[in-house]
Amino acid sequence: MSERSVAQNAQLALLLEVSGTPKPGNVDREREYDDLRFEHFMAGAVGARPGLDRAAAADPIGPAFETAVEGMAAQSGGNTQFGALLVLTPLAAAAADRRLSPSDVDAVVHETTVDDAAAFYRAFEHVDVAVDDPPDGLEPLDVRRGRDAIPELRAREMTLFDVMASSADVDGVAAEWVSGFERVFEASEWLLDGSGPVADRASDVFIELLAAEPDTFIVTRQDRETAEEVQRRAQAVLDGAETATDLAEEFVERDINPGTTADLVAGALFVALERGLEV
Amino acid sequence: MSERSVAQNAQLALLLEVSGTPKPGNVDREREYDDLRFEHFMAGAVGARPGLDRAAAADPIGPAFETAVEGMAAQSGGNTQFGALLVLTPLAAAAADRRLSPSDVDAVVHETTVDDAAAFYRAFEHVDVAVDDPPDGLEPLDVRRGRDAIPELRAREMTLFDVMASSADVDGVAAEWVSGFERVFEASEWLLDGSGPVADRASDVFIELLAAEPDTFIVTRQDRETAEEVQRRAQAVLDGAETATDLAEEFVERDINPGTTADLVAGALFVALERGLEV
Looking at residue B2, what is its pLDDT? Predict the structure, then answer.
């Protein structure tokens, strides 16, 4: 059996993430939105590949991420995997020439530069991403400004790591960047310890992560109260008081989309694949 | 929006094929077998990519196909996309440096060599493929002999096109090779003329192809009678007398798998994507 490359495992992680079902509120194999469909995630994973190849070839993280986002966006559904790629890019870079330990990934993100930050800002020009207003004083660095914010980044000498650190308290993916991808690595262990179809394990891990912390994408698109309700309901599924399928129907109906939690699952799938998870 | 490469469209065709549902008897987004699951098709499409890259780079068809099969087989479900890759490899080669017309593909398959045939035989060593006994007199060329049949191929100076021609009457993919991929190109027009989600169009086209001719993979695994029953039942779906969903449940139950028809759908999706089908 031939071995998959690092970039192939990253691409497969994107595909397996959306193959898990049910993943309440997210597009999965059995649920989709009229304008954001399963097929858009397939095309997103195909399009992201050149960027993942760059990350795995130890190209700088920022440009690799921008390339991945540009390719991901080459489908008509809009943003499918921006956050997942922001998780996967440093992980793929760490897997390429280190051992993909938390400290290896930590080294990768700490080595990012102002140029990486600039590329990250440019990535927002390829696709509409739902984001909150920036905190007071950080308006010049609003990611929605795209490349217009780059002079300000340079003036403040902010690396991509610094940018992530500035939003770690409101964004679950940024929080991973500054914590050594703690939740991703923990969830990868759950995947490796599980049994049965990988897609089912991805669904289980999604519910466990959702029950553990409020999803920041829900905080952004709805509010903290809704995110906390979702967290309680996910815990109710773990307790056997509700079913994941009922939650999935309801959340899609209410347009509640725990996108950050899905991003972490994609990262966990990648780490697990690199560590021998068999598909 | 960045454009997908030829190899990316071929990979996306594999992913969209299995995303269409219902596709009675085949693995799709909502149905799978215990030992052959949706996730195996995801991994197959990821693994096939290096071979698709070779085909799109105008490498010889046979080795490109063998590479694609070897990568496809790097998952635990067994044969997921052998036939689909046998359809896609010459199409990708034709798309790479010609205009992907039926005559362009015809030229590609007629240019195949004895070395291409040898690589095709080696491909059978990477994965178990359900095939019939060869006709009388062709036992030395039984594909199940793998590389052991290569001296006989060389003695008879059989090209890969010759090999396909020898089984065109019993294998629907081989029949495409010798007919300028007639059914694939026709089905690609149906996809382009359709509307709505691409996955739904893939499902519709699958039923139409199934109603038009007996599926040769069913003939191989079951018998001609079953294949003809499946053809009639697909026509009944088109006539509104049965539903595709009922057929899907029944065929999975009976382990009836119209795999050749799925292979043609993958080819049709590729041609349609190359000709502007939007996802």
Answer: 61
- Give this complex's ipTM: 0.96
Evaluate the CA torsion angle A112, A117, A118, A120 in order and state its sign.
positive
Given a cut of 70, is residue A191 above it in pLDDT?
Answer: yes
pLDDT at A130: 87
What's the rounded Cα separation, in Å, for the pair B79 and B67?
14
Q: Set out the domains of chain A in order of their start, with CATH numbers.
A: 6-274 (1.10.4200.10)
Compare all CA atoms of chain B with the CA of A40 and give the residue at the minimum distance: B279
Report residue A98's pLDDT band, with 50, 70 and 90 as the boundaries.
confident
Contact B15 A45 (CB under 8 A): yes
Burial of B113 (0-12, 13-18, 19+ CB in 10 A): middle
Among the partner residues A39, A70, A278, nearest to B2 by beta-carbon distance? A70
Query: Between chains, do B4 and A73 touch, taking CB under 8 Å as contact?
Result: no
Residue of chain A with shortest Cα separation from B202? A39
Per-residue confidence at A136, pLDDT binned at 50, 70, 90?
Answer: confident
Mean pLDDT of A261-270: 98
Instruction: Give the bridge partners for B33, in sequence order.
Output: B36
Cβ contact, residue pair B29, A37, below 8 Å = no
Q: What is the dihedral of CA B209, B212, B213, B217, to 10 degrees?
A: 30
Question: Do A3 and B74 lie within an 8 Å CB cutoff?
Answer: yes
Closest residue in B to A2 (Cα–Cα)? B74
Residue B30 with chain A: CB contacts under 8 Å: 29-30
Name residues of chain B where pLDDT drops below 70: 1-2
